[in-house]
Sequence to fold (177 residues):
Amino acid sequence: MTAYVALLRGINVNGITITMSSLRDLFRGLGFAGVQTVLASGNVLFETGPGESDASALKARIEAALSEAYDYEAWIVLQGVETLGRIVDAYPFDPNREGWHPYVVFSSDPSALTELLAGADGLDPGDERVTAGDGVLYWEVRRAVGVKSPFSKLSGKTRYRSSTTTRNLRTLHKLIA
Fold:
């Protein structure tokens, strides 16, 4: 068995409403064990059965089931729970910095992270900072700037929608607890 977290993109916003109980039922229906949801923003912890080790096939199967069940184009980023723990532990900024939000940007497409990192050149470090991690980007932004920040606007572009998702570090701590 392998423990994973599926980070769903774009649910419970813009008219795509999925209850967490329904989401748990869907994952259980796919044959996964230990299914749990964390918060209502599309974070699903689950375990695969023996022989299910192809992460890309697993991702495709989950996305297809979500799309069919909820009638929307589903995108997820799939992370092993152990890997997620290492990502959280490696957060390079002060996660408790007063007045700042700590985030991790995940992607199923490494080239998207490369583009986003290149686009982060020249950010005002008084407002936000972005640095590369192992298969992720670490981002901190002043609360007063938030979604109006240049990096937030860049990462929110349509071309990244199908392959990236961002989570607050506090959410990630809840996932690995």
In short: The chain has two domains: 3-83, 90-176. Residues 90-176 form a domain with the Alpha-Beta Plaits fold (CATH 3.30.70.1260).
